[in-house]
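Dear support,

We are seeing what looks like truncated structure output for some complexes. This example has two components. We would appreciate it if you could run it in full and send us the complete token output so we can diff it against ours.
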Amino acid sequence: MAGKAILYSYWRSSCSWRVRIAMNLKEISYDIVPVSILKGKDEQHSDEYRKINPMKQVPSLAIDGNILIESLSILEYLEETRPKIPLLPSDFGARAKVREICAIIASGIQPLQNLKVLNYVGKEKQQEWAQHWINEGFRAVEKILSTTAGEYCIGNDVTLADCFLIPQVYNARRFQVNLELFPNILKIDTRLKNHPAFREADPEHQPDCPNK
Amino acid sequence: MAGKAILYSYWRSSCSWRVRIAMNLKEISYDIVPVSILKGKDEQHSDEYRKINPMKQVPSLAIDGNILIESLSILEYLEETRPKIPLLPSDFGARAKVREICAIIASGIQPLQNLKVLNYVGKEKQQEWAQHWINEGFRAVEKILSTTAGEYCIGNDVTLADCFLIPQVYNARRFQVNLELFPNILKIDTRLKNHPAFREADPEHQPDCPNK
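Here is the complete output from our reference environment:
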């Protein structure tokens, strides 16, 4: 039942991307099963996939005989079961700061600008809507980073916060958010662009990327 | 610097409520500082409060010399620093199921039906909008509970998942969601209604509840 991990993923899904980064950083080998969430394809709604993920979302991760959903929960599981390359600092207060950044992105930004919500908001209001929530959240993240950042979000080691931040910066660019307002975020994004674990996880390097 | 913990809370905020339940369960004493997020009051936007919480939200928790924000991050911190009364099971797979339910509510439901998003959606569409996302999320939670629930969400011990579920059920009732569709959720809600830690944390028992 164990075997190689399987990640159900969509190339452009920022939640899938978070997990891809963490899997790469922790050197866990996995196969990707692409699930197209594109309007019209909607593979996440198939009977078969709903049995895997009742939220009808990517990612899902089959690992150690478990099927796991929800990126933050998946990353906590990987951290607990594969602690050798840690993505949380040891200090309790610093761990809380990592998780705050993850939570701001996972609850305060991404849910409000993901594809299924944008479909509901309607085409003409999508860009303004997405920009509003990304700006709100990034202002808070930038404020936290002003006291916590070193080379990366929290000090000088890559953490779960970086796994969440980089995909969200990509989304911010898609919605033409003015990133010059967020110098700490931009600095970390630039620094991680060429990190192998991040580069291999990015949308353009995925098997289901259409221009690959 | 340490002293008694201070919880910045709003009586009807489900995110504040999650933390109140966990603090009560873990028998951590705290004082409440009410922050009114009601439209027109908007105390969360004050310069003073923004220094505490750059997301301009409740809850925030001052504890152990730290100021913590984001309910899920706060609960993980309490679990790590106060493990004596645990709110996560010991098994890794079961912990992941707890966190999945927390994440579905924290990312898939609550952000889409909280006050600041409803203000943005506009009065005439609020109820339909909120019902849509609560039903989507509760269908997934109900599916998970069908395999994990005992007396409570995960087995027979109260966990973080219950701290997240009960306030969300209250919100579902406010938006007139048909809870008969979710028998496992209803059963757990009924069972926890009279649990002292939950009862003392509920909106009606808060110092800033207007009808108190």
